[in-house]
Write a structure and sequence with these properties.
With about 240 residues, the chain is α/β, with parallel strands linked by helices. It has 10 helices and 8 strands. The chain has a 5-stranded antiparallel β-sheet with strand order 4-8-5-6-7. A 3-stranded parallel β-sheet has the order 1-2-3.
Length: about 240
């Protein structure tokens, strides 16, 4: 996410020497037009799993929103691959998570005049307080406002049915996040599950090891006072 990097420019050894001209975020217009934030979400998930330097497992939709929140300029790429209606959907997806008035330019094949990218002169580090991200909102809440608990899962038969239960729980109860894994019958790979509200993603990540019990678990994060028993029953099915 750009915000912590920009904040580093306040360090005394850096602040007097360099500045952040501006934060440019490039988005996949074709994917946004189809309701995704990346072209191949499964390939992206595999890359993130393989990246040993990656500490956080935030859903890609949250990463997208946090990056847009810090942008001084948004480049909508692959404009040549979408029609006018698709472009409108892509722009709407950006506007939905863009908290400030920021210019969006559409380009094809990743080709953009460097004059549009350089010399923005924003000095982003001096305006970083106005770059409100999801993490900022979470830090403003006292942790006592939330409930977190684990729901054990036996082996399941249908990943889509589990995803549907997770989505239904988010809509019915005050559930904010669900993440974890499940064992699918006749499948040697573990199924990863992540949800933000009613948005649910799932994909196989790795093989079960010989020492592991084929049992799943889902971590549920919700508002204080959440009916744990009802949520657990609904997830187990």
């Amino acid at each position: 996410m750009p915000k912590p990097l920009v904040q580093a420019f306040h360090w005394p050894a850096i602040k007097s020497r360099v500045t952040v001209d501006g934060v440019v975020v490039v988005v996949d217009g074709a994917a946004l037009a189809e309701g995704r934030v990346a072209h191949d979400l499964n390939a992206l998930a595999r890359q993130r799993i393989a990246d040993t330097a990656l500490v956080h497992d935030d859903p890609i939709e949250e990463v997208f929103a946090d990056q847009i929140a810090c942008a001084d300029l948004v480049v909508l790429n692959k404009r040549d691959l979408i029609d006018a209606a698709g472009a409108a959907r892509a722009l709407a997806a950006i506007a939905n998570v863009l908290p400030r008035s920021v210019k969006v330019i559409a380009v094809a094949d990743g080709k953009v005049d460097e004059a549009l990218l350089l010399g923005l002169g924003v000095g982003t580090e001096d305006d970083i307080a106005n770059r409100r991200t999801r993490h900022d909102a979470e830090e403003e809440h006292d942790h006592d406002d939330f409930d977190t608990f684990v729901v054990p899962l036996g082996e399941i038969a249908d990943p889509s049915a589990l995803a549907a239960r997770v989505a239904a729980v988010a809509e019915k109860f005050d559930v904010l996040r669900v993440k974890g894994f499940a064992a699918v019958a006749d499948k040697p790979l573990r199924l990863m599950v992540q949800a933000v509200g009613a948005r649910v993603t799932h994909q196989y990540d790795r093989a079960w090891t010989a020492s592991e019990a084929r049992e799943g678990r889902l971590v549920v994060i919700g508002l204080k006072g959440l009916d744990r028993a009802a949520v657990a029953q609904a997830l187990v099915g």
